[in-house]
């Protein structure tokens, strides 16, 4: 908690400079939108999901235990749950209206969105959550981020479609130039199927097994205090200009062949 307050203090002191640098760097998007994932990027759904499954298994499961997003299924099996039921238990922990309606916002996300609003930069939220949870998702936005229009909260992944495929389709449809994500596999698909750049918010499930691509940027190892603060730090820094520059990325692609 003390660390979070210190981050807020430092951010308040430096806000004008950080904002000016971030808005200047994001001009490189040439008017393209910013896509933002919801789970573990905008909303810390893992907080309530882990509370729920910890209660079920009678064991304290921490975020650091999730070396993959669906590690909950393996944890359930390792704790005596029938293998046929373990994945269903994991899905029910994540895909729950109570979780989606009540989990806290990710650290730094409100400050990041404040900057985008002030700079008049367009953004929307793209999630591979099942569409039946749209109302619970919108309820959370009404409480936590009330300025976000319902039409800018995009769910609708069809049965059998991967999250990466769904997000790629929406990114292409809505002209997203930069997407903020936490899942490496989905970032890989986005990089392969769209022209968008992807920033990976640090989480335990993306610390390892990274897919290297000139349009994917990893922001270090995971920490609860990171959240969107790491995105703000990067986008307001000198490396962002290189990362978002088509000239630099074209050079990187050429060098890789």
Overview in brief:
With 257 residues, the protein is α/β, with parallel strands linked by helices.
Most strands sheet:
6 strands, parallel
Measure the end-to-end span: 47 Å
CATH architecture of the largest domain: 3-Layer(aba) Sandwich
Mean pLDDT: 88
CATH topology description of the largest domain = Rossmann fold
Compute the number of structural domains: 2
What general outline do the C-alpha atoms trace? Answer: globular
Task: Tell me the number of strands.
Answer: 6
Question: How much helix is in the residues?
Answer: 40-55%
* Radius of gyration of CA atoms, rounded to a whole number: 18 Å
Widest sheet: strand ordering: 3-2-1-4-5-6
Order of helices and strands: HEHHHHHEHEHEHEEHHH
State the low-pLDDT regions, or none.
247-257
Task: Report on the architecture of this protein.
It is a single chain. The chain is globular. The chain has a six-stranded parallel sheet. The protein folds into two domains: 2-44 and 106-256, Rossmann fold; 46-101. α3 (71-78) packs across α4 and α8 (163-173) crosses α9 (184-193). By secondary structure, it is α/β, with parallel strands linked by helices. The protein has helices at residues 2-25, 45-57, 71-78, 83-94, 97-102, 109-118, 134-144, 163-173, 184-193, 229-235, 238-244, 246-256, and strands at 33-36, 123-126, 153-154, 176-181, 197-200, 216-218. The protein is 51% helix and 9% strand. It has twelve helices and six strands.
């Amino acid at each position: 908690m003390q660390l979070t307050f210190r981050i807020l203090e430092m951010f308040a002191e430096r806000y004008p400079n950080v904002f000016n640098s971030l808005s200047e760097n994001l001009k490189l998007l040439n008017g393209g939108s910013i896509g933002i994932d919801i789970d573990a990027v905008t909303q810390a759904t893992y907080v309530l999901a882990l509370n729920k499954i910890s209660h079920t298994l009678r064991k304290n499961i921490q975020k650091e235990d999730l070396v993959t997003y669906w590690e909950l299924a393996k944890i359930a099996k390792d704790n005596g749950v029938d293998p046929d039921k373990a994945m269903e238990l994991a899905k029910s922990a994540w895909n729950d209206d109570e979780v989606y309606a009540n989990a806290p916002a990710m650290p730094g996300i409100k400050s990041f969105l404040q900057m985008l609003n002030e700079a008049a930069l367009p953004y929307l939220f793209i999630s591979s959550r099942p569409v039946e949870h749209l109302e619970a998702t919108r309820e959370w936005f009404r409480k936590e981020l009330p300025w976000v229009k319902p039409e800018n909260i995009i769910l609708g992944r069809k049965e059998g479609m991967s999250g990466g495929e769904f997000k790629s389709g929406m990114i292409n449809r809505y002209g997203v130039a930069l997407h903020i994500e936490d899942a490496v596999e989905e970032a890989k698909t986005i990089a392969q199927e769209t022209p968008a750049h992807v920033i990976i918010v640090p989480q335990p499930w993306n610390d390892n097994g990274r897919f290297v691509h000139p349009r994917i940027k990893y922001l270090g190892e995971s920490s609860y205090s990171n959240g969107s603060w790491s995105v703000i730090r990067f986008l307001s820094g000198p490396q962002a200009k290189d990362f978002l520059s088509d000239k630099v990325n074209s050079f990187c692609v050429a060098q890789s062949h």
